[in-house]
Design brief:
With about 260 residues, this protein is α/β, with parallel strands linked by helices. It has a single domain, classed as Ribonuclease Z/Hydroxyacylglutathione hydrolase-like (Metallo-beta-lactamase, Chain A). Helices cover about 35% and strands about 25% of the residues. It contains nine helices and 14 strands. A six-stranded mixed β-sheet has the order 1-2-3-4-5-6, with helices on one face. Strands 7-8-9-10-13-14 form a six-stranded mixed β-sheet. Strand 8 and strand 9 (about 120-125) form a beta hairpin. Helix 1 runs parallel beside helix 3. The longest helix has 15 residues, at about 190-205. The structure holds zinc ion (ZN). Zinc ion binds next to loops. Monomer.
Length: about 260
């Protein structure tokens, strides 16, 4: 199969949710990743002249699914939801679980179950396009809150992102970049790459933008929750260097909750 590069648009929804459209230029197939709010999704489709064919839901929280009924009514798009969220997602036509394949035209994604933020959370990885839609699992410079599991469950989900190629673009479900950056700097004040990225995020925010997507390589260099094997982060979390990364993760996540 020929290599296909998708067209992707991001836009703010509600107050800090990120709306995303991904389109296969060859077939015209187009998917929304979650629908936090109908109006900005419909406005972007209109502005681009795109036809929505699919909605890929990452998890059942209201701020990711509330716009679905209106968008389905207007576009007829097919809703794909996590199997574990089958009852909660309005109009779910198809459900997916670990290892399933989803296509948007010629674009192909693998489904990962990534529990931790909530039990039903899934991530969509378009390997050939080098794009991953992380929902509320992995954020630019941060990670999701742990709501329905022990912290190590989220750590196991996050660890999977470390195996992706560095060039993979990461789209997260919220713009928490500046507050995540403040915490990251508190945890790892001597990380030069991190200082540069936070400065870049601040410049973007001044212009009304946000540092999304990120890349796996950038996150590996700057996101404290992916750097829990580093001695500096173990020390910052109050643990011995060389401690179990899951324990460092748990301590960092608890610190972030109080931060
Ligand atoms: Zn959520």
């Amino acid at each position: 199969m020929a290599s296909v590069k998708p067209e992707i648009r991001t836009f703010l929804c509600r107050s800090d949710n990120i709306g995303v459209l991904i389109r296969d230029p060859a077939s015209g197939a187009c998917a929304a990743i979650d629908v936090p709010e109908a109006a900005p999704v419909l406005a972007t489709l209109e502005a681009e002249g795109w036809q929505l064919t699919d909605i890929l839901v990452t998890h059942r929280h209201a701020d990711h699914i509330e716009g679905i009924p209106e968008v389905v009514e207007r576009t007829g798009a097919r809703v794909t939801a996590p199997e574990k969220a089958r009852e909660a997602v309005p109009g779910a036509k198809r459900t997916v679980a670990e290892g399933d394949t989803v296509t948007v035209g010629d674009l192909v994604a693998k489904v990962w179950e990534t529990p931790g933020h909530c039990a039903d959370h899934v991530t969509y990885h378009f390997a050939q396009a080098e794009v991953v839609f992380a929902g509320d699992t992995l954020f630019t410079l941060g990670c999701g809150r742990v709501m329905e599991a022990e912290p190590q469950v989220l750590w196991r989900s996050l660890r999977r992102f470390l195996d992706l190629p560095d060039a993979t673009a990461v789209y997260s479900g919220h713009d928490y970049v500046l507050s995540n950056g403040r915490f990251a700097l508190a945890a790892e004040p001597d990380n030069r790459n991190l200082k540069d990225r936070v400065a870049q995020a601040e410049r973007l925010a001044e212009q009304g933008g946000f540092l999304i997507p990120s890349t796996i390589g950038e996150e590996k260099a700057t996101n404290p929750f992916l750097r829990v094997g580093e001695p500096a982060l173990a020390r910052a979390a109050g643990l011995e260097p060389g401690s179990d990364p899951a324990a460092v993760f748990t301590a960092l996540r608890a610190w972030k909750n109080r931060f």
